[in-house]
Design a protein that fits this description.
There is one protein chain. The chain is an alpha/beta fold and 298 residues long. The protein has one domain: Metal-dependent hydrolases (TIM Barrel), CATH 3.20.20. 41% of the residues lie in helices and 15% in strands. The strands form 3 sheets. Strands 4-5-6-9-10-11-12 form a 7-stranded parallel β-sheet. Strands 1-2-3 form a 3-stranded antiparallel β-sheet, with no helix packed on it. A two-stranded antiparallel sheet has the order 7-8. The radius of gyration is 18 Å and the shape is globular. The relative contact order is 0.10.
C-alpha cells in the first residue's frame, strides 16, 4: 500500500490500483463503511490481481491460493468469504475448490478470462462440474485486461467499457457453449450487473435462430440460459437496474458495492430503492437472495 498526493494505491508486481480507503486491508474498516451504508453482512473476495490465475507458475499459483484461502476462511464477524483457485489448471482448480469449501469458504472468485481464454471453453468443464456438484458460488469479475485497443487506453475506457465487455464476452461464451444448460445447478454471479451481457441478448437470440454454429451447443434459447446467471446491482443507474431485474427476475439479483475501489457505488441501498421496484423485490435484492445463496440464517 502507498499514498501519493493524498491518494491511496494498492500495488503488486508493478501493477497498481487506486483505492478509496485502506478498507482493502482492514476488515474492521470495511465493516464500518458497510454499516454506514446500511449493510450488515459482507461478501468479501480477493483483490483480482491476487487471484490464482494471475501467475504463470502452477506451483506459485497454488501456494498463493492456499495461503489466501486459509486467511480468508479465518475472518470473523458478519462476513462470508470467497477464495481463489488456480484456473489455468482446471482439474487442479476443481480439487482446490473442494479444499476451499472444506475450510468454510462459500466459493471462489475467478476472472472473466484466463490467459486469454473465456470461461465457456471445454477446458474448464472439470471445474464447472465440481462447482455444480459442490454447490459453490463462483463470482466472475473482469480481469481488467480485456480491452487492448488504443481507444481503451483513453478516457478510462479500459474500465468503463473494457471491463463490462469482457464480462459480457465470457457470459455469452458460457451461454452459447451450453455450460449453464448442462449444469443447471451452477451458482455463477457476474460482477457489474453482468457487464453488457443482458443488453446483447437480442443479438444472441437472433443469431441462435439462424446460424448453425451459434446453436451447435445450446438447446435452450440464449435468453433462458442467461437467466440462469446471478447478477449484482453495480450498474450506477436506477433505470438500468430496473431493466436488469425485469429481465433476470427478482430472485437472481444481489446487492453489490465494488468497495473499496474508486468505481464503488456510493449508495448501493439507495440505488435499489430508487429503481421503483415493489417491496417484495426490494427485500429480495437487499437481503433475501443473498441470505438464500450464502446460506445465512435469519
Amino acid at each position: 500500500m502507498r499514498a501519493e498526493n493524498g491518494v491511496q494505491f494498492a500495488e503488486i508486481g508493478g501493477r497498481s490500483a487506486r483505492i478509496g480507503t485502506r478498507d482493502i486491508t482492514s476488515l474492521e474498516g470495511a465493516l464500518e463503511t458497510a454499516r454506514r451504508r446500511g449493510i450488515d453482512h459482507l461478501l468479501v473476495a480477493p483483490w483480482v490481481q491476487l487471484l490464482g490465475e494471475s501467475f504463470d507458475s502452477q506451483a506459485q499459483a497454488l501456494e498463493l491460493c492456499r495461503l489466501q484461502n486459509r486467511e480468508l476462511a479465518a475472518l470473523e464477524g458478519p462476513v462470508t468469504a470467497l477464495g481463489t483457485v488456480p484456473m489455468r489448471s482446471p482439474a487442479i482448480a476443481a480439487e482446490e475448490l473442494r479444499r476451499a469449501l472444506d475450510l468454510g469458504l462459500r466459493g471462489v472468485e475467478v476472472t472473466a478470462s484466463i490467459a486469454g481464454t473465456f470461461l465457456g471453453d471445454d477446458a474448464f468443464e472439470p471445474f464447472w462440474a465440481a462447482a455444480e456438484r459442490l454447490g459453490a458460488l463462483v463470482f466472475v469479475h473482469p480481469s481488467s485486461r480485456g480491452a487492448s485497443s488504443s481507444a481503451a487506453s483513453s478516457y478510462f475506457l479500459w474500465n468503463t467499457v473494457g471491463n463490462p465487455v469482457e464480462t459480457a464476452t465470457t457470459a455469452a461464451h458460457m451461454v452459447m457453449a451450453g455450460v449453464l444448460e448442462r449444469h443447471p445447478g451452477l451458482l455463477v454471479l457476474l460482477a457489474h450487473g453482468g457487464g453488457a451481457a443482458v443488453q446483447l441478448r437480442g443479438r444472441l437470440e437472433h443469431a441462435w435462430g439462424f446460424e448453425p454454429s451459434a446453436r451447435s451447443r445450446l438447446g435452450e434459447s440464449p435468453a433462458d440460459s442467461l437467466r440462469r446467471l446471478l447478477f449484482d446491482t453495480i450498474v450506477y443507474d436506477a433505470a438500468v437496474l430496473r431493466h436488469l431485474v425485469e429481465f433476470a427476475g427478482t430472485d437472481r439479483v444481489l446487492l453489490g458495492t465494488d468497495h473499496p475501489f474508486e468505481m464503488a457505488e456510493d449508495d448501493p441501498v439507495g440505488l435499489v430503492r430508487a429503481a421503483g421496484l415493489d417491496e417484495a423485490a426490494e427485500r429480495a435484492i437487499l437481503r433475501g437472495n443473498a441470505a438464500r445463496i450464502l446460506g445465512l440464517d435469519g
